[in-house]
Amino acid sequence: MKYLLLLMVMLAGVWLWRSRRVEQRPPAPPQARQPARPDAMVSCRHCGVHLPASEAISDAQGHYCSVEHLRLQRDGQARLPRDEN
Asked: What is the mean pLDDT of the chain?
């Protein structure tokens, strides 16, 4: 009977030692993620500002940075001057 009690005490000690060891283990490093793919850049047909294609407003004539610039271009108002390279 005393050997059974001794065995149970030893098992409890090993279990406690292992459970504390797991708690002290540093966290695993985060999984390496693939960087996001870059988005194509387009320029506003009205003012020339560059912006990602996913944020641009597009129609048959080109890309625009805002609804206001699209409206101005459709209304036929003069384009703002910009540097043409």
From this structure: 83
**CA 23/CA 76 separation, integer angstroms:** 69
Share of the chain above pLDDT 90, in %: 46
Mean pLDDT of 60-82: 80
Helix (H, G, I), strand (E, B) or coil at 2: helix
- Residue 51 CA to residue 65 CA, distance in Å, equals 7
Q: Is the pTM of this model over 0.85?
A: no
59 near 45, Cβ under 8 Å? no
Amino acid letter at 77?
Q
CA angle (59, 65, 37) in 5-degree steps: 90
Beta-ladder partners of 57:
64
Cβ-in-10-Å burial (0-12, 13-18, 19+) of 60 comes to: exposed
